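Contributing: when you submit paired examples, paste them exactly as shown. First protein:
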Amino acid sequence: MRNRRRIQRRGPLVVYGKDRGLTKAFRNIPGVELISVSKLNLLKLAPGGHVGRFVIWTESAFKKLDALYGSWKTKAPLKKGYSLPQPKMANTDLARLLKSEEIKKVLRRPIRGVRRASRKLNPLTNKRMMLRLNPFAQVTIRSAIISEEKRKLAREAKLAEKRGLPVPKKYEIMLKISKERKAQQAKLRAKNKAAGKKPAAKQPAPLSLRDKKAAIYAEKAGKIKKKVRDSP
């Protein structure tokens, strides 16, 4: 204990009904405590919450217990309207009760299946999720990377010209490839014009399953209306 130089252990507790010189007889013995039956204290009977203190009951104290607390059948005469508390459970073996067949039949079976929630990924930070939602995103990302590289090479070429240094080879290769692509596109246009071909029209997008079902239902409804009109 804090701020205690000497610790004295608890001795026996003497419970008396009539004080006939008991307090004077035991007051000099260290550790021994005395208490009246009508003033029983839980801190004296079980100090520190530990049950099992050695308690000495006098004959007069033992006889007075029934008058103070009564019995299971009669109320206490010295206390108004007081009776001993009745136990709620007849059988206190809780583990045996829970494992009994009567209670098991009423209870539902335990849910042992593990349900794991699907993780929702952010398409703005996760490329795989973005490509699953929008496959054309790969083309836009690639075009953005190529345009960024072109701007970088053009900047480097301008700086090299200002400083009187040779133009980087990557810039020359990029210009050559872009010229070849433009020439190929011009040839294709001229060839299509000479053949009199029109630019290919955009093909309609394939119908979804929901749209197909709607079209089938609309067709059936039209046939039914036609039969009703034709009927006399």
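Second protein:
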Amino acid sequence: MKKLLNTLFINQPDVYLSLDGDNIVLLKDQEQLGRLPLHNLESIVSFGYTGSSPALMGYCADRNISLVFFTMSGRFLARVIGESRGNVVLRKKQYRVSDDEVMSTKVARNFIIGKIYNNKWIIERMTRDYPLRVDVAQFKDVSKHLSSIILEVRVCEDLERLRGLEGQAAISYNKLMGQMILQQKEDFYFRSRSRRPPLDNVNAMLSFAYTLLANDMASALEGVGLDAYVGFLHRDRPGRASLALDVMEELRGVYADRFVLALINKKVINKEDFLKKENGAVIMTDEGRKKFLTAWQNKKQEKITHPFLGEKIPWGLVPHAQALLLARYLRNDLDEYPPFLWK
């Protein structure tokens, strides 16, 4: 159980939520695990299948406290709310900002600042931890270049210009990805990003990680009442969760890239976990995906101190924390959306 920004997160399995007076009570096998007053809560987020009592659901509906249910792996199931009040206002504000490119740019540039900043510190940490295994001078040059791009992004007011700056930063960062692979270099190499289809083992893993992260981010956005399909940087396209792709930009490197590199460098994944198809596409085997997903779920349980909130939370709650912060910004509770800045 974790309270964060007036939201209660329950990530223990098989916990039943019930009502006692003005308190939520957490039960497991009829044993009380915890109790918390409801009067300060805006939302209750539960990971698991056990469910909630009708009394608690009715109490929350009457008081505009949303009850959100996810699977243990983080897939969005349902959001239970009472009369439409806050969510309508929130989504209308989201749509207005999305329709205005100037307003969209002001939000989107913070996603990109987070992405570039985090990639810069991935590079800096490599020079600190492996100075004899990477080209330190080259890494420092790229780090300096990323710092200069961040300054340009901070004052950028044009969406196309912002995309161009993000592209420059991505090219510089990707040039170093191959050097960050320290083990199994014959079987795992990175020359450039290939997506549809991925043409090597590393790109196959990156594509899988980005898909998982996008799904987690979309679920988190739905959980706070935002429309995951209406973005600011990524524009509307049928079937694309544009806002999820927006917010996950700041987490791509620090969450997904570092995860993939760790699986390779720790030899959790090896060349036997991949298949090459006739068209050149590389896919993971069933066993490889099983290893990957197990490690992904374990990663989500690791604790990190959130840089803006200053609280220790599992990595798996980071998308939910960012979704909450974005919703607060759109409600004018924050002057600026605070990106996730890792160091």
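If you have annotations for the second protein, write them as plain sentences, like these:
The mean pLDDT is 89.
The longest strand covers residues 31-37.
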